[in-house]
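Weekly sync, protein design subgroup
Attendees: M.S., D.O., the rotation student, P.L. (late)

Item 1: inverse folding check
M.S. brought a backbone from last month's batch and wanted to see whether the design step gives back something sensible before we order anything. D.O. pointed out we never logged the input encoding, so this time it goes straight into the notes. Structure tokens as presented (379 positions):
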């Protein structure tokens, strides 16, 4: 066991808080393991010691039972168990590789003890194609009605001439003689081993002596694809629609990936959306603001009549029920709100001026009195 057990706190070693979750602890250890890995620091005894210390700290903190004991007793918990604590001390990097092979497989391509068991079969066996993402822009009106939209995008699929093998018709794909079809080779330095992609077959595990002329040996061809997409009413910016099997074509006969259509709603200056409700500004003749009455208004899809209450004030809201957006889940329609603004004429006729002066007399409005307003208190 390294000197770590009797010195620095394990949480300090990994640089995490004492209440850190398992994922945070694992990420911290991965970072240190990559930094101080002996193959990256050949001959550096200090780096090797830090590598072992980080592994020892992770061995304890990644195990709930060991961590509980450590939190209660600290390093004293090791003295109670005969020298190796919780079986967590590491005498060599080889011990570390055997204990955390899954982590080193991610960091160093399967390197370390046990890493050579990994193969590159995923490159040569059938596997699913990648999922694709498509951004689709729609209008506010489309949200209310829903729509059918044709979209076009570029993708890849297996070459039809070679069926994805990459070899010309009549020829065969041969197993790589250097890696024996594994796609990876193992190199050793002392008790360290590193697994890397085979330089002869470039990790494929196979050799193509006569490449397909259509795909030039890649086994893949580009394809322009057009499909019809149903966009339901009630969507909003960020809504994702999954279309199964319309993504990238599968490899070696594997299934195609999925297509995710992500919705973007175009901004419209006249309208504003708040959840399922629609808001807009409505300019109303000042006389109608005072007298009230019915007014023809436009929604996103229809023409309607809106009742303006008497003596409406600028900024007041008038609701037109059921003319907002439908809910994607319930299809219940929201409401449309009109924010009223008084509209005044730029010029008034002699007759209109005459009537306004009569109204002014009702309010005892003196034209020379700048302190009195048109709507001053009526006696």
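Designed sequence read out in the meeting:
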């Amino acid at each position: 066991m390294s000197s770590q057990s009797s010195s620095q706190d394990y949480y300090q070693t990994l640089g995490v808080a004492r209440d850190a979750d398992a994922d945070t602890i694992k990420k911290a250890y991965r970072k240190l393991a990559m930094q101080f890995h002996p193959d990256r620091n050949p001959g550096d005894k200090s780096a090797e010691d830090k590598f072992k210390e980080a592994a020892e700290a992770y061995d304890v903190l990644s195990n709930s039972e060991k961590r509980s004991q450590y939190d209660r007793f600290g390093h004293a918990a090791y003295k109670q168990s005969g020298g190796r604590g919780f079986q967590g001390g590491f005498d060599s990097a080889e011990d570390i590789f055997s204990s955390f092979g899954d982590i080193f497989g991610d960091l160093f391509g399967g390197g370390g003890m046990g890493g050579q068991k990994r193969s590159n079969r995923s490159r040569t066996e059938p596997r699913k194609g990648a999922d694709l993402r498509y951004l689709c822009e729609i209008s506010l009106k489309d949200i209310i009605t829903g729509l059918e939209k044709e979209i076009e995008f570029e993708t890849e699929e297996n070459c039809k001439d070679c069926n994805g093998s990459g070899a010309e018709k009549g020829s065969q794909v041969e197993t790589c003689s250097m890696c024996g079809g594994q796609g990876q080779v193992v190199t050793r330095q002392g008790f360290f081993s590193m697994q890397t992609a085979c330089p002869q077959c470039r990790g494929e595990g196979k050799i193509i002596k006569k490449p397909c002329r259509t795909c030039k040996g890649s086994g893949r061809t580009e394809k322009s694809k057009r499909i019809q997409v149903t966009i339901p009413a009630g969507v909003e910016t960020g809504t994702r629609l999954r279309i199964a099997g319309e993504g990238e074509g599968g490899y070696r006969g594997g299934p195609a990936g999925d297509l995710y259509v992500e919705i973007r709603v175009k901004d419209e200056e006249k309208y504003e959306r708040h959840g399922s409700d629609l808001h807009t500004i409505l300019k109303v003749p000042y006389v109608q603001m005072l007298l009230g009455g019915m007014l023809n208004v436009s929604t996103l899809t229809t023409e309607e009549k809106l009742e303006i209450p008497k003596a409406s004030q600028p900024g007041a809201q008038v609701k037109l029920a059921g003319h907002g957006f439908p809910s994607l889940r319930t299809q219940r329609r929201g409401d449309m709100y009109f924010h009223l603004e008084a509209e005044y004429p730029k010029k008034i006729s002699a007759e209109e001026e005459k009537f306004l002066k009569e109204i002014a007399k009702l309010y005892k409005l003196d034209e020379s009195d700048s302190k009195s307003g048109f709507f001053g208190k009526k006696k």
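Discussion: The CA atoms of residues 15 and 308 lie 65 Å apart. The radius of gyration is 37 Å.
Action: P.L. to compare against the previous round before Friday.
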